[in-house]
Design brief:
Its EC number is 3.6.4.13. By secondary structure, the protein is α/β, with parallel strands linked by helices. The protein contains 25 helices and 16 strands. Among the domains are: 248 residues, P-loop containing nucleotide triphosphate hydrolases (Rossmann fold); 146 residues, Rossmann fold (3-Layer(aba) Sandwich). The protein is extended. Bound molecules: adenosine-5'-triphosphate.
Length: 640
């Protein structure tokens, strides 16, 4: 019978054979040890060797694939003994070469005892195809994955788009009333910028019914707008709000503008003041300085400047508890923290009549700041309390108890339950939705799907004002730029970078100011401490110059260390050009609009691209030219 053994098995057999041979030689030399009477074995030591051989053999067998139909093997120990006793002294090589030798297959207990020549070949292992790497998707395809389809289909707007504002009866496509257009001309605005041209038709539909203050059955869609700094985003929401609200009869809180800083609140309030004058809004006292009637428009600001009780009395009638709440203002411009205070703690303060919720400018920053989960609280307060109770909210979210206290108003249909039993749903209540339209503006719009989802946008539409020369790109590169956070800069901005040794930064800055005419400048540092140090150093330099008869430049620090009134005064002096250089931290890097700023210097590099975009955006606004200088330390260059 021919058998086939694996080379490894042969080697083991060889080893055992050699061992036995050696022992036999020993026995020949020394007197033979008596075999065990009972077992017939030669000695204990031989037994031990046999055990080792068995263990080796067992290992070998385990490493071999055992076929399913493997026949029962003979008992190995006995077979081994038989083999070792009966083996002639032959050359090992001969034994291993002679496949006909019956000894070897028996001794190793071959795992595949062959039965016929056709079964000699081992069963082939199943074949699996080699793994291959799929082609990597392109960067753009990856960037667009999982995005809101509305963002992918964003409306692209060329920055060069403008629309003339006529003064006659014909609105020229602006959708603005005659009075408002006249008011715009009065303040020197004769055409709409790109972002305004794109947004006004969406926010002021031609059909009068779509401009209604209550659209519970056909609620308006929300808008997200990405446009460069200084491109006129403020007017893009101020104009439609004034135009829409000017039709209202009863004063209710209908527009809420949430801003990250007090300075921005003041700035936006001024824009509302300037444009709402003469539009027929009801006469009311403005909340700026207590007891001081500045104008007669109904615009409130809640920023924490005044005592809380003072703000409350300016915003609402505190008693008695009124159906639908109460409001002395139509438009509220505020910071998030103070807003939550009023939602929670001011009786009769209600958002159920809200028509516009604007989270402007720094939507990304506002969303980044938790502010007691302000957005969720505001959205909850603008909805029917019944619908909030029934809905699944995040486990951390607790709607303010006050919104359940406020009684719904018959003129806010989404709030009013026809049966006056809020917990019993009816088909009528299900269909009605809040009329609040959310408007989100930023130069650095977030692409974070989680953050966008947290806004609870309703059928959102995106507008992107960016790079007109890319219109023909099939990949919609403007959308990609937003998605991949490649922010667009104003076209009139010139950017410069100076690489310096850190010890020479003050000198280089001093050189720029006097040799590159860097005045009317905002200089950004990394901290309040760094701000005051640079100002002191600069004043020291200027003193030295004045000793030589040269008129010194006025440099001031603007930081969070200063009290509010001082900050306001400094900003006013800078606006009126009494201060030539304002050194500040990132406190005023966002949204502040000072027309004569011709230079922005990043004395310390900003920590991220968003900060850079907002910093340099303080110049080159509204089509004016501007320069941005960034001083980069040598080690910072290496790092990037
Ligand atoms: N249609 C217009 N015609 C002339 N000037 C305009 C027009 N629209 C806006 N401006 C002016 O452009 C400047 C910048 O406007 P705005 O502050 O709204 O920009 P922005 O896009 O909000 O900038 P940022 O993102 O930095 O806040 C302001 O001084 C504003 O008065």
């Amino acid at each position: 019978m021919t058998t086939v053994t694996t080379p490894k098995i042969k080697t083991n057999a060889k080893k055992r054979y050699l061992k036995k041979k050696k022992e036999r030689r020993k026995l020949k030399k020394a007197p033979a040890s008596r075999p065990n009477a009972k077992t017939g074995r030669e000695s204990d030591s031989e037994d031990a060797d046999d055990d080792i051989s068995d263990a080796e053999e067992k290992k070998t067998k385990e490493s071999q694939p055992t076929p399913k139909s493997s026949p029962k093997r003979p008992k190995k120990k006995r077979a081994d003994q038989t083999v070792s006793e009966g083996l002639p002294e032959v050359n090992v090589d001969e034994a291993s070469m002679n496949v006909d030798d019956p000894v070897i297959p028996v001794s190793v207990g071959s795992p595949n005892p062959p039965e016929s020549s056709s079964e000699k070949k081992p069963k082939p292992l199943p074949f699996f195809p080699l793994p291959t790497l799929p082609n990597a998707p392109s960067k753009s395809a990856l960037a667009l994955q999982g995005l809101d389809q509305a963002l992918v289909n964003a409306q692209l707007v060329s920055p060069s788009t403008t629309l003339a504002i006529p003064t006659g009866q014909d609105d020229g496509g602006t959708r603005l009333g005659e009075k408002l257009r006249k008011r715009l001309h009065d303040i020197g605005i004769s055409e709409l910028f790109a972002v305004q041209t794109a947004l006004l038709p969406s926010l002021l539909p031609a059909a009068e019914s779509s401009r209604s203050l209550y659209l519970s059955y056909y609620p308006p869609c929300d808008l997200c707008v990405s446009a460069p700094t200084g491109s006129g985003k403020t007017l893009a929401y101020v104009l439609p709000i004034i135009e829409t609200l000017s039709t209202r009869v009863v004063t209710r809180l209908r527009a809420l503008i949430v801003l990250p800083t007090r300075d921005l609140v003041s700035q936006v309030r001024e824009t509302f003041e300037a444009l709402s004058r003469g539009t027929g809004l009801k006469v009311c006292r403005l909340v700026v300085n207590p007891g001081n009637c500045i104008n007669k428009e109904q615009i409130g600001t809640a920023t924490g400047h005044h005592s809380f009780s003072h703000e409350q009395s300016q915003l609402v009638n505190l008693t008695p508890c009124l159906q639908g709440g109460s409001s002395k203002v139509d438009i509220l411009i505020c910071t998030p923290g103070r807003l939550i205070d009023h939602i929670v703690g001011t009786p009769n303060f209600s958002l159920q009549h809200l028509r516009f919720l604007v989270s402007i400018y720094e939507a990304d920053r506002l969303l980044a700041q938790s502010f007691q989960d302000w957005l969720a609280q505001v959205l909850a307060a603008a909805q029917n309390p019944g619908s909030i109770q029934g809905r699944e909210q995040s486990p951390d979210f607790k709607p303010p108890a006050s919104i359940f206290d406020t009684k719904p108003d018959a003129v806010a249909p989404c709030m009013k339950h026809p049966l006056d039993i809020p917990n019993i749903p009816t088909c009528l209540t299900e269909r009605k939705q809040s009329s609040c339209q959310k408007l989100l503006f930023s130069a650095t719009l977030t692409r974070d799907p989680g953050k966008i989802a947290s806004l609870g946008l309703r059928n959102p539409r995106y507008f992107i004002v960016q790079g007109s020369d890319k219109d023909t790109d099939p990949l919609r590169s403007e959308v990609l730029d937003v998605v991949m956070e490649k922010f667009s800069m104003p076209e009139t901005l010139s950017e410069h970078m100076v690489v310096v040794e850190s010890s020479k930064k003050p000198l280089v800055f001093f050189y720029l100011v006097h040799n590159r005419d860097v005045t009317n400048a905002l200089v950004f540092t990394k901290s309040a401490e760094s701000t005051s140090r640079l100002v002191r150093l600069f004043e020291f330099f200027e003193e030295a110059r004045s000793d030589k008869g040269l008129s010194p430049l006025v440099v001031r620090a603007y930081s969070s260390d200063l009290p509010n009134h001082e900050r306001k005064a400094i900003l006013e002096q800078f606006r009126s050009k009494q201060i030539h250089i304002l050194v500040c931290s990132d406190l005023i890097s966002r949204g502040i609009d000072i027309t004569h700023v011709s230079h922005v210097v990043s004395y310390d590099v900003p920590v991220d691209m968003r900060k850079y975009v907002h910093r340099v955006g303080r110049t080159a606004r509204a089509g004016r030219a501007g320069d941005a200088w960034t001083l980069v330390e040598e080690q910072e260059v290496k790092r990037h």
